[in-house]
Amino acid sequence: MKILVAGGGGREHAICLALTKNANVELYSVMGKKNPGIAKIARETLIHAETDVPAVRAFAKEHNIQYAFIGPEAPLEAGLADALTKEGIGCVGPVKAAARIETDKGFCRELMNKHGIDGCPAYKLCKTPEEAAAFIRQYPGDLAVKPTGLTGGKGVKVMGEQVDREGAVEYAMTLKDQVIILEERLLGEEFTLMAFTDGKTLVPMPLVQDHKRAFEGDVGPNTGGMGSYSLEDHTFPFVTETDYARALSIMQATVNALAKEGSPYKGILYGQFMNTKTGPKVIEFNARFGDPEAMNVLTILNSDLFTIAEHIISGTLSAQDVSFEKKATVCKYLVPTGYPDKPHAGDVITPGQAENTILYYANVELENGVLKTLTSRTMAYVGVGAGLAEAEKYAEAACRNVTGNVRYRSDIGTETLFAKRIAHMKELRS
Ligand code: AMP
Ligand code: GLY
User: Where are the annotated coiled coils located (predicted)?
Assistant: First the structure.
């Protein structure tokens, strides 16, 4: 079976590794930058923007591709799934109209509102920066300020975190020629719930917690995600059974709403939730696997990802298709010095000893056996263990043994940070 994977990040390396565990899979890849991990296992690679739909379609037709797995959001927004589906190529990844759940945050909120879906924060859409500024000035509480379009997770400013009220106004004034969304600031613990879906049935994956902030202790600018962890029981102590059931039913209601609107959703639905005092609220949906979260869950996927993909495409997905090892995972990204604001590229890095970990390459160059940083996240180690402490120990040791101009967050997955999360939730709900 010939399957094309679009994208060249750590997430796509994890997708490609999981797919090629099936010996019948012939992997083809299209990616903007050559990911050395993917290039090594792909039969054929097109180094080209995945958003160039005609070019990707031509490559797929030339190689008689049967299936496609679309990793990032940008090609979904460009309509890659629509174009490939028209050619008879089944896609894991929604068509453009359904991907709006991620690519247009205003659409997402209006859809939730229209269909009475639980977990939607109070929001306001503003057509001009002036309208947003006026609203921010008179609003009694804190707000999150976002452009409605894609920003790679870096476009949100939250009052009381990155900005004060005047800072929020200033930021809104920079968001010209686009709809601005203002949302009540949600307080709580964030978690990621991802699910496979064929447009009707939803099959959830283990809960994961990402770390968006650049530096230890959750400070500094937002990034694409510095690392993430999951527990051996696939849940979190700060998410009750009721919270979990609500989050899953919000995801199911959203898939149902998209189908009702005439855009059935096939692929991975990613729910970013804030578990608040009163239960889970949706921060955002993504129309794809999370990066880094994909690396946590795919590392412990017991089932065959290719079979899951087939069932997503044919509309026959069921819970029996999917099982995960009862192991904890900790993923730590190594990033260039200065990332995300002023990343330094072109530095040589050398991996050292790494035990009980999987190495996923991301934005890194391999030339004559030498690895060099580029401007985005470099590569990640996922440690796997019976519990969090063990998984963290392996990921941490592997990262520490890398030499070169890269850094990582050593606090991700540690007992200290984990205890802080639990205490935070307890305090919020006491
Ligand atoms: P997003 O790009 O929408 O995932 O937002 C990036 C980060 O901003 C999230 O992971 C949250 O930490 C934060 N954020 C977004 N929206 C809100 C909100 N309404 N209240 C509090 N924090 C938010
Ligand atoms: N880790 C957040 C994202 O993939 O959007």
Answer: none
Ligand nearest to the CA of 210: 2
Cis omega before residue 94 (within 30°)?
Answer: no
Would you say the pTM of this structure is higher than 0.85? yes
- What CA–CA distance (Å, rounded) separates 250 from 89? 30
263: how many CB neighbours lie within 10 A of its CB?
A: 17
Taking the CB of residue 365, how many other CB atoms lie within 10 A of it? 17
Is residue 297 within 8 A of residue 206, CB to CB? The reply is yes
Per-residue pLDDT tens for 209-247? 999 999 999 999 889 899 999 999 999 999 999 999 999
To test the pocket of ligand 2, the residue of 11, 272, 273, 409 to mutate (highest count of ligand atoms within 8 Å of its CB) is 272
Residue 356: Cβ-neighbour burial (10 angstroms; 0-12, 13-18, 19+): middle
At 10, list the tokens: 């750590």
| CATH class in words for 2-95 | alpha beta
364-367: strand order across its sheet: 364-367, 370-373, 348-350, 403-404
Residues 272, 283: contact at Cβ < 8 Å? yes
Instruction: Pinpoint the residues of the chain covered by CATH 3.40.50.20.
Output: 2-95
Cβ of residue 218 lying under 6 Å from some atom of ligand 1: no
Share of residues in the chain with pLDDT > 90 (%)? 96
